[in-house]
Amino acid sequence: MRRSEKGNPLDLRAWLEEVRALGELKDVRGADWNLELGAISELNVKKEHNSALLFDEIAGYPKGFRVLTCSTSSPVRLSSILRLGVERTHHALVQKLRGRPAAWQAEAPNYEPVVAETGPIMENIKGDGKVDVFAFPSPFWHEKDGGRYIGTGCSVVTKDFDSDWVNVGTYRVQVHDERHVGLDMVPGKHGAIQYDKHMKAGKPFPVAIVCGADPLCYLISGIEVPFGMCEYNYIGSILKEPVLVVKGQVTGLPFPAASEIVLEGWAHPGDVRTEGPFGEFHGYYPGKAHPAPAVTVERAYYRNDPILMGSPLAKPPNDYSYSKAVMRSALLFDALLAAGVPDVQAVWAHEIGGARMFNVVSIKQRYAGHSKQAGHILNQCGVGAYMSRYSVVVDEDIDPSNLPEVMWAVATRSDPAVDIDIIQRGMGSKNDPMYVAYPYKAPFNSKAIIDACRPYDHLDEFPDVAEASRELQEKVRRKWKDLLE
Q1: Which of 251, 271, 291, 359 has a Cα at 20 to 30 A from 427?
Q2: 229 and 91 in a common domain
């Protein structure tokens, strides 16, 4: 890392000003951290036109200690976060995003983060026995959770044991007591690999938990960035300027200079505590409480009037599912084209399947077997195979993001005997809620490819659809806007 004063500090407040001006932010006062924040956020995100929610005057906490939820759950907010300009529809955002992840990854080495001497995050520093994690309004999100979680929309900064590689990952963080939090990292994830190296060497594992920053930070820390690459570089390639960071006083780990709340400390060898349960992206509690590393917090940094970023997983649509749906849809679209599938019109990785288990592609049929080809590649390509369950192919007149339209096509354009293909023992996961019912000793699951296109050999005979044309619908919507919105 270079030392400088130039770079983007990832200031959440600048982004909030932008989305407030766009009419995408609502203030909520007087809610309770105990279940109420979670229920309000959950009901809000299920609305067709939802807003980001900024909670203040939270029960039992001083005014100004705030919680933000639903930051990524609309095309306007997500396109703003990704610096893509303002997009108001799913498909426009997917098209704008196509090809970008590969370009960002290729350019990332050119955007090494830069280090500042100080930043807004240093406005308040608690240490020397004065750390109290309960000073922040960590929500108890759902009735069956294992406790309060300060880290859901967070970025956990860690460092490799035998190299300079700094990793920034999204791992859930449970509050244990005033000075200890639990850190849940799935085995094989980059943070877990770094942790295991430290434990094998008998050394404490350095951790800095960013509990609030520009949502681009936690959005990117939750995707698959290549092994050995720092997420700050990847974020810099999106911003087209380096990320400005400061270094923690205890571990020396870097975190964004304008972070809202940062907890810094160590996970010591042998210090594991019961963590969870907590919901997963598919909307279930697939596992029970289990031992996980505990972090002893030695420093708490926070801005004046700090904002805690919340993004709890729950039955979809949830706080995070929309961003996953958009990003995975773009990746699936690119994968289909790379495999040689022509005339792909649109792709949507449905939130109801956690953007993995129910995916739909619309095509303009060009030849016999085109729809089957598209369905099998959608299901089995590199970005689509993990936990894929249902892959549906529809004609170009069907919006793949509109579930009633998709299921209408399934009901009226498919014959179960010939239009549903089953793949046995496909790539699954122990995180699958159905895993408890499978007879396999390894994480397999079966997969269905549903061809819901009009039969190619009967296209000329297939009945016309009884509805107004797309052109007429748009003309009427414009003329009767007040009535139909």
Answers
A1: 291
A2: yes
Per-position b or e across 257-285, b if 16+ CB within 10 A of its CB: bbbbbbbbbbbbeeebbebbbbbbbbbbb
Q: How far apart are the first and last CA of the chain?
A: 51
Q: Which tokens in the block code for residue 143?
A: 């009735």
Asked if residues 76 and 18 have their Cβ atoms less than 8 Å apart, the reply is no
Neighbour-count burial of 1, counting CB atoms closer than 10 A to its CB (0-12 exposed, 13-18 middle, 19+ buried): middle
Q: Which amino acid appears at position 401 of this protein?
A: S
Residue 196 lies in a domain: yes
CA distance 91 to 79: 12
Question: pTM of this prediction?
Answer: 0.94
Cis peptide before 317 (omega within 30 of 0): yes
**Based on the domain organization, do 299 and 341 belong to the same domain?**
no
Tally Cβ neighbours within 10 Å of residue 112: 16
Looking at the fold, whether 299 and 369 belong to one and the same domain comes out as no
Name the pairing type of β-strands 254-256 and 420-427.
Answer: unpaired
Q: Does residue 395 sit in helix, strand or coil?
A: strand
Phi, psi of 68 (to 5 degrees): -110, 135
Identity of the residue numbered 323: S
Supply the range of the domain harboring residue 421: 321-479
| DSSP for residue 8 | B
Residue 75: which CATH number? Answer: 2.30.110.10
CB neighbour class for 38 (10 Å; exposed up to 12, middle 13-18, buried from 19): buried
How far is Cα 433 from Cα 386, in angstroms, rounded to an integer? 14
Cβ pair 362, 336 in contact under 8 A = no
For the stretch 366-420, pLDDT in tens is 999 999 999 999 999 999 999 999 999 999 999 999 999 999 999 999 999 999 9
Residues 6+ apart with CB under 8 A from 32: 58, 59, 60
Considering the domain architecture, whether residues 148 and 286 belong to the same structural domain is answered as yes
Q: Quick: pLDDT tens for 63-94.
A: 999 999 999 999 999 999 999 999 999 999 99
Q: For residues 359 and 381, what is the distance between their CA atoms, to the nearest angstrom? A: 12
Based on the fold, state whether residues 283 and 338 are members of the same structural domain.
Answer: no
Distance CA 357, CA 433 (A): 11
Fill in the amino acid letter for 23. G
Task: For residue 265, give both structure tokens.
Answer: 């400390």
* ∠ Cα 225 226 227 (to 5°): 120
Q: Which residues does 376 contact at the CB level (< 8 Å), separation at least 6?
A: 391, 421, 449
Q: Is residue 315 part of a domain?
A: no
Residue 485, in any domain of the structure = no
Give the residues across from 114 on adjacent strands: 2, 244
The tally of domains found in the chain comes to: 2
Tokens of 283: 């909307």
